[in-house]
Amino acid sequence: MLTIPIEIQLLFAGLLFFLGLVGVLVRRNIFFIMMSIEIMLNSAGLVFIIASAHWKHPGGQVMFIFILAVAAAEVSIGLALILRVFHHYKSLDVEAVNELKDEVKE
Amino acid sequence: MTATDILCLVPVLPLAVGPLIIMIMVAIKRNYELTYGITLLALLLGFAFIFYTIPFVPHSIGPLFVIDHFSLFFLGIIILSALLIVLISYGFIKKLSGFKEEYYIILLTATLGAALLAMANDFVSFFLGLETLSISLYVLISFQKRKRLSVEAGVKYLILAAASSAFLLFGMGLVYVRFGTMQFDQLAAQLIYPVHLSPLLLLGFGMMLVGLGFKLALVPFHAWTPDVYQGAPTPVSAYIATVSKGGVMAVFIRFFFAVHGYQNHVFFIIISAIAILTMLLGNFLAIRQKNLKRLLGYSSITNMGFIIVILLIGNKQGVQASIFYLLIYFISTIGAFGVLSVLSTEDKMVETMKDVKGLYWRKPWLAAAMTFSMLSLAGLPLTAGFIAKFYLIFEAVKADILFLVFVMLASSIISLYYYLRVVTAMFSKTGEEEKTYPALSFSGGLALSFISVVILFLGVYPGWLIEMLIKFVGL
Asked: Which of A9, B111, B115, B229 is most buried, by the most CB atoms less than 10 A from its CB?
């Protein structure tokens, strides 16, 4: 069986994570930000899978299932919040959702 | 699972069963008072069972959890804070429009998450506890879903907390790749110092630090704090400042000590830089605040900076001092937020300096409770806050990290200014229009008088608690 060196595998996971991070930072639509966060979480899950395969240790795969479950819970709350945001702001742009700021001094 | 396992988990069982019972009850018939009563009962039972568990510790449950005096003490602090927050929430939540019972369900699940964090001994339990806590917090923060600011705070927290969880997870993954184990004590066994930290491992620990830094609001990951504190319902702000940070701090301390982070030169420099920045920047930003919730948010940043100094002291006494500090900080912060929440209603939140101006002439007892909390946060003598700060600084001096001691002293002095500003605002005369505040509920009054008494009592007789800490708590 062809084995890919672990560095390459980790590099791939790192690349995915970076893609997700860039998405969170540059996207302005809350939907896309949530999707980018999913990518970040799943790339972290990928690292656990890689480690689990590398060490022949099942813990990492268990962790991945937990990560999936948690990510699903997070998204369900996130989508509910997005609905409320749209209700209040009539927009999903994060720039619009920015009323909480420091107002300094009387 | 053995009988001892179950006996050791007894303190968290009420926190897990309570939400289920309330959920079934809400499905049948909504009753606010009964829900509130069950929540209180669950927390009181949890607190009482801690004393029952003491003879069985230390004990590990599988690879996931470890129950020792350290986790029990943190569990006690977490449950006590949650209890006080439930008491101060009663009046405020009761007057909300819409469904209210869910607040207590989610508050209990969040407390369960924090409690699991205090016992976590493995990346799996660490992550699950943290997410149980965070996901519950998203809901709590945006609980007033008809208010724009509450929803905005919820979204901000959701995005940042989820992204920081991803950082934490990726870091954990890298550490796992290197060592092939997720248990803290097995990691510790493989990390005998001085060890060469490969770039991969450094990156792993660094990313974990980013994730934890977000949850604890350490500079430079603190930017969400004031916004979220301001937008969230006031009791929930108190919850984020106390229970959620307590849980994360517990697991942070346990992990950091397990890997002997304080012996590593790189970590030492990074953590000192973070501690110094956190202590100072929190203060400077707080000085010009006129919104009290934001001010307390910045104050919580500063206080977390104080507590992570103990990571650098790196001995048992440091941990004891930090637990004492954490307890006093929690009680004082809940007192301050508590006064704000018993004064607030859904339509009229009391949160700016102007809102509390002249409070003493209308509600002298509440103003007194707020004053005690503020003085304790500022660390003036005869309040518990003074003892806590003194104890922490004393340990830092003993550990010979004088530069940090200097920053701690400077930061305490700067913080006097803005805490006292709140006090002077409350005692100043106002000739303005009559302000109306809601009547104080019994439970709110009970919590606030308890907090005031504890602050004064521990300020005068702290010895017994410190002795108890020294006798029991270690790592």
From this structure: B111
Size of interface A-B (CB pairs under 8 A): 144
| Chain B CB within 8 Å of residue A47 CB | yes
Are B100 and B350 contacting, i.e. CB atoms less than 8 angstroms apart?
A: no
Q: Do the beta carbons of residue A101 and residue B285 sit within 8 Å? A: no
What does the domain layout of chain B look like in residue ranges?
Answer: 3-472
Q: How far is A82 from chain B (nearest CA, A)?
A: 8
Nearest to B173 among A51, A57, A81 (CB): A51
Q: Which CATH architecture has domain A8-89?
A: Orthogonal Bundle (1.10)
Instruction: Tell me the one-letter amino acid at B46.
Output: G
Burial tier of B154 (Cβ tally within 10 Å: 0-12, 13-18, 19+): buried
Query: How far is B41 from B426, CA to CA, in rounded Å?
Result: 35
Spans of all domains in chain A: 8-89
Cβ neighbors of B40 (< 8 A, separation 6 or more) are: B83, B86, B87
Going from the first residue of chain B to its last (475 residues), give the mean pLDDT of each consecutive group of 10, the final group possibly shorter. Answer: 87 95 94 95 96 88 91 94 96 90 96 95 95 96 92 94 95 92 88 73 92 93 93 95 95 89 83 93 89 94 91 85 94 96 88 87 92 94 93 91 91 93 88 74 94 95 90 72
Q: What is the DSSP string of B63-86?
A: TTEEE-HHHHHHHHHHHHHHHHHH
Neighbours of B460 (CB within 10 A): 12
CB contact at 8 A, B414 and B287: yes
